[in-house]
Design brief:
heterodimer, A: about 180 residues, mainly beta, five-stranded antiparallel beta sheet, B: about 110 residues, alpha/beta, Udp-n-acetylmuramoylalanyl-d-glutamate--2,6- Diaminopimelate Ligase, Chain: A, domain 1, five-stranded mixed beta sheet, binds zinc ion
C-alpha cells in the first residue's frame, strides 16, 4: 500500500521504560527535563557552563514510537515527555477554553509536552500530535467519547497549571488494610 | 459482560456515579505507564493506586472502570475528578488476586 494513501492504524512499538528526570539550576532557576534509562539519576549537583543542576524529581515513565500496522511507517515519539489531562484551572488559558467547548461533547483535552526547556529541545509538530491523537482515539472502544490532544504551547502558564503529566510519581498506596 | 453484573456478583462498592458499560476483560497493574502502553479499551482495571492521575490514565485509554482493591481509601479529589470525566471507580476490601480469581469464576474473559 502506498504510504500517502494509507489511513494509518498504529500500534506502540520500541517501548522503553525509564525515568523522566527534572533538574533545576539554582543559579538561574531554569528547569530542564530529560528521559533516562538509568534508575539512578545523578543525585549530586553538577555544573554545566553557568548552570548548577540539581535533581528535583525522577518519575517512572516510558517512551515509544508508533508504527502503522498496514503500511509499516514508523513515527518517532521520543521527544514526547508526557501527556497531561486538562482539568481546567485558568479561564484565560487557551487549553482551558478548548476544554470548555469540547467537554459537553464528551471530548477530553490532553496536552502533549515535549522536554524542557522547550526552546532547547525539538518539540512535537502539529502533524505528530494529530497522529498521536488518532492513535489514542483508535484505541478507544466506546464511540461515546473521544480525546483531543493539543500542544503545550496552548497552556498559558505551565508553572501554575493545575494539570499533572501522567507519570508514575507520588503513586503511593499508603492505606493499611482494615 | 455488563459492569452491573460484575458489581453485583463481586459485591463491589461504587464510589462514583455509575452508568452501564460492557466489560471486555481485565487489566492488572499499579503503574500508569503500563496502563498507557497496554490496557485495552473496555477492560476493567485493578489497582491499589488512588492518586488523581489514575483518572487521567483511565480516561486516556477508555477502560470500563477502575477497581481499587485491598480497601485502599480513595481521596475525595480523585472521586470528584472521576465524576467529572465519567470514570467509574469501584472499591473492594479484597486483594487484587482474589478479585481476579472471582472474575474468572464468573466468566470474565480477555479479548
Ligand atoms: Zn499506514
Ligand atoms: Zn542556570
Amino acid at each position: 500500500m502506498q504510504e500517502e494513501k494509507c489511513a494509518h492504524t498504529c500500534e506502540m512499538v520500541n517501548v522503553d521504560y525509564g525515568f523522566v528526570i527534572t533538574e533545576k539550576c539554582y543559579n538561574c532557576d531554569k528547569i530542564s527535563t530529560y528521559f533516562s534509562l538509568e534508575s539512578r539519576p545523578p543525585l549530586e549537583e553538577y555544573r554545566e557552563g553557568d548552570h548548577f543542576w540539581n535533581v528535583m524529581e525522577s518519575a517512572q515513565s516510558f517512551r515509544f514510537d508508533l508504527k502503522c500496522t498496514k503500511c509499516g511507517k514508523v513515527e518517532k515519539f521520543d521527544n514526547l515527555m508526557g501527556l497531561m489531562m486538562c482539568t481546567g484551572c485558568d479561564n484565560t488559558c487557551e487549553a482551558d477554553n478548548l476544554r470548555i467547548i469540547l467537554e459537553p461533547d464528551r471530548t477530553w483535552v490532553y496536552v502533549a509536552f515535549g522536554f524542557l526547556p522547550t526552546e532547547e529541545h525539538t518539540q512535537l509538530t502539529e502533524e505528530k500530535i494529530a497522529i498521536l491523537e488518532n492513535y489514542f482515539n483508535q484505541r478507544r472502544k466506546s464511540s461515546s467519547s473521544r480525546i483531543k490532544i493539543i500542544s503545550h504551547e496552548s497552556v498559558k502558564n505551565i508553572a501554575t497549571c493545575y494539570g499533572e503529566v501522567i507519570k508514575d510519581l507520588h503513586m503511593l498506596s499508603l492505606t493499611p488494610p482494615e | 459482560m455488563k459492569l452491573q453484573d460484575i458489581i453485583d456478583k463481586l459485591n463491589l462498592k461504587p464510589l462514583t456515579n455509575m452508568e452501564e458499560r460492557d466489560v471486555e476483560g481485565v487489566f492488572i497493574s499499579d503503574m500508569l505507564s503500563d496502563v498507557m502502553t497496554s490496557a485495552k479499551s473496555g477492560e476493567i482495571w485493578l489497582t491499589v493506586q488512588t492518586h488523581t492521575n489514575i483518572v487521567s490514565a483511565a480516561n486516556l485509554v477508555d477502560v470500563s472502570a477502575i477497581i481499587v482493591t485491598q480497601g485502599k481509601t480513595v481521596p475525595q479529589n480523585t472521586i470528584d475528578l472521576a465524576n467529572r470525566y465519567l470514570v467509574i471507580i469501584l472499591s473492594t476490601p479484597k486483594t487484587t488476586f482474589e478479585i481476579a480469581t472471582e472474575m474468572i469464576g464468573i466468566g470474565v474473559k480477555n479479548r
